[in-house]
Amino acid sequence: MDTLVREARVHELIIKNKHYRLIIDEILDFEPGQYIEVWLKDKFGHFIAPRPYTISSKNKGEFLELYIGLITDGFYSTHLSKLRKGDIFFYKGPFGTPLKDRVNSKKILLISFGSGISTYRAFIHSLIPDKTNQIKLLYINSHYDDMFYNEELRELETSNSNFAYTSLVTKEDSTKSPKEVFIEILNKLENKDEWNYLLSGPQKAVTEFDSILTEKGIKNNNIICD
After folding, report:
1. Is the pLDDT assigned to residue 210 strictly greater than 80?
2. 162: exposed, middle or buried (C-beta count within 10 Å: 0-12, 13-18, 19+)?
């Protein structure tokens, strides 16, 4: 774990609707589920309080990548969205307990809202090679343009029998609510108490789905919220 502020350069920024991918020209040794602290400087050149972002790089050997939701009046998300290739980027890390050390089952249901997918991208890639793992993902977003990893996840599902992927775009063509789709997936699971349930995204959505799991009788030690 690196506790010093490190300096790197922006490699690429891909911005679409309400989310963007920020790719940094830096190879980082991390474990899926870990995060970095992003640091900015004020007009006097002093560092201000950092903001944590989960690492969304697919694998350890790739450039450091962040998947960020653009928040109205959000200081960090707005500032970072204005970075361009070659700009300086400051960070510390990685930090945090890897997801592999937080789960206690080989059957894992992942529920991601918006930029919450950044928490699970590398985790999915690390789990799939072990065919004794069963992984299901429900990825919920508002717009198609914001689902950066949709094609990648579809290809993973096609080529791996132990990975099932369900996507839901709430503001464009969805005929069912996220809650309805989630409950349908839960109702199809066999031996629900053998699964781990991981939730990542805005607090309000995570809390709502956490309550659904509790109502279904899922034990708290099988639920992991980020």
Report:
1. yes
2. middle
